[in-house]
From TrEMBL:
CDD domains: cupin_QDO_N_C. Pfam families: Cupin_2. SUPFAM superfamilies: RmlC-like cupins (SSF51182). Residues 61-119 form the Cupin type-2 domain. It comes from the Bacteria. Signal peptide: none annotated. It comes from Streptomyces daliensis. This is Quercetin 2,3-dioxygenase.
Amino acid sequence: MTIEYATRYRRSSAIPAEPGKPYFIEKGEGDRAHLFGDLITIYAGGEQTENLFNFFTCEGPKGDLIPAHVHPDTYEVFYIANGAVRLFVEDTEGTQQEKLLTSGDFGFVPKNCPHAYRMERHHSQVIGVAAGPGGTFERFFETLGAPAEGRGLPREPVVPSPEKFGTVPQEYDVRFLPGHEWRTR
């Protein structure tokens, strides 16, 4: 059984609002959000880790490339639990790479490196961790997307308006790069 808490983000959450409190979450019972065609489930965030790291999963269908973005102060980890995900990364010198990651593969994106990804198989799942001096960005998913009550993928993709993309950089250390081109494809 998962205990539920009220937080500043939700009426009901499996994640305690205050730090320093041990907790357990059953599979799929974290704070969920839909963004693009994906379901993001947050299991630990800044409130629990003194803004040192977050832990989340992102699952989705085979789909479109997620928009290029950068985290100026946050490192991000991609561990593929199921399926296949193509990760696109550009280092700080402008060298681009792309790699198809399958179950068990790992990708690391340093802070200030533009990146994007695309689910290459249906029911792909990424385990993500983000950490760094910029804090954590897990609440970005439900702020830009939409909080989700159920465990399933969105019926229709949740695509924010262009204006909404500009509202997240200061608070969540996520800056989108409109018009960024990947030369590796």
